[in-house]
Amino acid sequence: MSTQDFKKVLIALDYNNEDTALSFVSQLSPDECRLKVGKEMFTYFGPQFVKKLVDMDFDVFLDLKFHDIPNTVAKAVAAAAELGVWMVNVHASGGHEMMSKAKEALTVYGDKAPLLIAVTVLTSMDQGQLLKLGIEKTPQEQVLYLAKLAKESGLDGVVCSAQEAELLKRELGEEFKLITPGIRPAGTDAGDQKRIMTPQKAVQAGSDYLVIGRPITQAKDPAAALKAVNDSIVAS
Ligand SMILES: O=c1ccn([C@@H]2O[C@H](COP(=O)(O)O)[C@@H](O)[C@H]2O)c(=O)[nH]1
């Protein structure tokens, strides 16, 4: 069993209390998972919180989903690189120029540059919600469209649901990374997620990294919930 199998799990640290988050993190090893900091914790606790996790040797995915004019996004991803994060993301719908300028801004960091990933269609969205935005494609078609744009713009991969993983691996190749939230172990609550899949099926479909929040962080025993997910992945 390789530690890389375990490091497929990115735990979404969505807490409103830093001590609660750090107490959970203190039960984890950087060999068994990576950590994701999103808008809630970053807005409460800022770059200092991210730095604490980086200094504890965790690979940190800074999930701030930048979406702005190219110059602003390029500077924001460079600021993320300064924090020493492992991965950072932008919205693919920001367009080719925004994504390619962001990638270019990271070249000065050489092999220390974080992976740059584009969000395609949020996993909380289904066909009905896309229609309300005036998008007539299916979620699969829209994800593929935006993922091709992200690849053409030089990005390292995309955030999509595991339901699109097989298609994207076939169309865009093995090297293009697929980061999949909307992961739900059997019997857990989907909550606001619409395009979901179990950890084991997601890995079989081609997901490189599984983003998991509430099924682990809200479990009675979060460390045991992570272990169960890791065991199910290794068994797949
Ligand atoms: O399309 C997306 C992009 C990001 N997310 C983030 O992932 C986690 C999922 O948490 P759960 O509790 O497992 O639902 C959360 O931080 C989202 O902001 C996403 O769900 N979908």
From TrEMBL:
Recorded family membership: Belongs to the OMP decarboxylase family. Type 1 subfamily.
SMART domains recorded: OMPdecase (SM00934)
CDD domains: OMP_decarboxylase_like (cd04725)
Any Pfam family the entry gives: OMPdecase
HAMAP family in alphabetical order: OMPdecase_type1_B
GO cellular component: cytosol
GO molecular function: orotidine-5'-phosphate decarboxylase activity
Keyword Cytoplasm among record annotations: no
Active site: 63, 65, 68
Gene behind the chain: pyrF
Orotidine 5'-phosphate decarboxylase domain span: 8-229
Primary role: Catalyzes the decarboxylation of orotidine 5'-monophosphate (OMP) to uridine 5'-monophosphate (UMP).
Protein name per the record: Orotidine 5'-phosphate decarboxylase
Species this chain originates from: Pseudoalteromonas peptidolytica F12-50-A1
Coiled-coil boundaries: none
Subunit comment: Homodimer.
